[in-house]
Design a protein that fits this description.
185 residues, globular, 2 helices, ten-stranded antiparallel beta sheet, alpha+beta, single chain
């Protein structure tokens, strides 16, 4: 019986040492924290109708009339409609694009004079549209537009850089949310 008690005590001690050792080691070294699920960042409120403020914009070639942008943005898709009406009697000129946000692939649009490839990505609270095109005459152009919001989401800033055979050109479009207090000023 004594031998059996000895073996039983030995086994318990042998089993207890690694457990005690690992507990002591665990207490000495910090445990890695479980990964915290990244909270979905709040979507910037780009969706809405935006009216161009010609006075505050810094545009290389000013255009008479009213320009507006209509944006629908849900975090996954960016739908942008641009409309310009030279005078109240004219029909508005429009173009639009729908892009998948953060897609690695470019969206291709074939116009009559140019084939243009573009994509859009979210960078923090900004959206960055980048694209390049080739005209039917082989001329190349690159374009980048950075969309940001100011005035509690009531002012849209479109900072555009275009590089073509004329060199780099910069435009700063300032648009106000339709119906906002900023637009009324």
């Amino acid at each position: 019986m004594t031998y059996m008690r000895f073996m039983h005590s030995f086994l318990l001690l042998a089993l207890a040492l690694p457990v005690a050792s690992s507990r002591a080691q665990t207490a000495a070294t910090p445990r890695p924290k479980a990964p915290v699920a990244k909270a979905e960042a709040k979507l910037p409120p780009f969706s809405g109708t935006w009216i161009l403020d010609n006075q505050k914009s810094q545009i290389i070639q000013r255009i008479d009339g009213e320009s507006k942008a209509i944006i629908a943005y849900d975090g996954k898709s960016w739908h942008y409609v641009h409309s310009h009406q030279s005078s109240p009697n004219d029909e508005p000129d429009q173009w639009q694009t729908r892009l998948v946000v953060d897609s690695p692939k470019y969206n291709t649009v074939e116009g009559t004079d140019i084939v243009f490839h573009s994509k859009i990505a979210r960078q923090g609270n900004a959206m960055v549209l980048s694209g390049y095109g080739v005209t039917v005459r082989g001329q190349r152009t690159r374009n980048t537009v950075r969309y940001t919001l100011q005035d509690d989401g009531n002012t849209l800033i479109e900072a555009e850089t275009t590089v073509n055979m004329l060199g780099p050109q910069h435009n700063l479009y300032v648009l106000h949310r339709e119906g906002s207090p900023v637009a009324a000023k």
